[in-house]
Every structure is written in structure tokens, then in C-alpha cells.
Amino acid sequence: MSEQIDIPDIPNYVSVDDAAKRLGISKTRVYKYVNEGRLQAVKASHTIMIPLEELDRYKRNITGRPRKSTPPWRVPPTDNDLRITFILVQILSGKTSILKKKLVEIKQSDNYTFPGTVARYISESETFPERVEIELVWRGAREVDIAEQERELEAFRQKLADVLDWGTARYSSSRILLHT
């Protein structure tokens, strides 16, 4: 039978487990960053503790290859125009953290990809507090089944019905004239 280690509260320090939760990364990655020197830590007996100020300083590396130049503006060809569906919807009171957890679940499950889209964005509005902005960018060259599109959107609405007030949703559709 394994003995549970009781980690004392040390002011301004957190355990590896807490650091991982706060940074949104795995415990294994926290250990790796400590070993690499990307995160400073102290060892007390058999416990590694990380200063809170280290978590504040932590910067995630940019994933992928950084751009060397800004892409030029483009006009979509007439046979492949792009469209955007924009949805602005109110977050139910006190449900922001639950919404964020559900969005992580959606990402991990790889569901609600809206066939025919080339980009999908869900963001917290800085203009309208407590609202979410959803942008779906559709490629016009692909034949889109409107009924399938609506079924996918309805399933998405149902998944988030307990955190978003779909009665407040404002929808707009646009054709893209210029993009990068």
C-alpha cells in the first residue's frame, strides 16, 4: 500500500501538479521544463516546488514555424469564394470557466469541425464582455449541404446549451472580398 505524501503549503510556491494545472500543461512537461531550466524550482526532500513568480514569467513557445514575412492580400477566385458565418452569443452568468472546459473537450474529441470550413474561431469578446464570438470560414468551391451544415451547427448549440444563451445569438453571413 503506497503512502500518500502530504505536501505542506509553502507561501509563494506550488507543487508540480498545481503548476501543470495553472499552465495548462502536463506534469511530465513541467518536470521537463525544470530539467531544461525553463522553469526554476526548488527541491524540498523529495518534493519539487515551483515559485509562483516563475509561473508568471513562463512563456509558451510558439508552435509551428514562425512566419518570416506577412502574407500579401489576396482576392478569392470567382470559382472559390470564401464566406464567413459570424455568431455573437451571450455566456450564461457564471459559466465562463465551464465553457472553457467544454471547448477543451471539443478540441480533444475533434468534433464539431463543420465540414466545408477552412478555419474556425471561438473567442471571448473584448468589445462585449461575457460574450463569445464564433467565426466559421467556408470555402465556396466545396459543395456544401446546407441541411448538413445546419445539423452540425444544431449539435454544436446543443453541446453548449448549458453555458451559452443561444436565445441572444446574433448571426451574420458575409462573402470575403480580400484575405491573407
Kindly describe this structure.
With 180 residues, this protein is an alpha+beta fold. The chain folds into 2 domains: 45 residues; 98 residues, Alpha-Beta Plaits, CATH 3.30.70. The protein is 29% helix and 28% strand. The protein is built from 5 helices and 7 strands, in the order E-H-H-E-E-H-E-H-E-E-H-E. The chain has a 4-stranded antiparallel β-sheet, with no helix packed on it. Strand 5 and strand 6 form a beta hairpin. Helix 1 crosses helix 2. The longest helix has 14 residues. The chain is extended, with a radius of gyration of 22 Å. The model has no long low-confidence stretch (mean pLDDT 85).
Report the portion of residues in β strands. 25-35%
- The percent of residues in helical segments reads 25-40%
Work out the oligomeric state of the chains in this entry: single chain
- The total of beta strands comes to 7
Radius of gyration: 22 Å
CATH architecture of the largest domain: 2-Layer Sandwich
- Number of helices, counting only DSSP H or I runs of 4 residues or more: 5
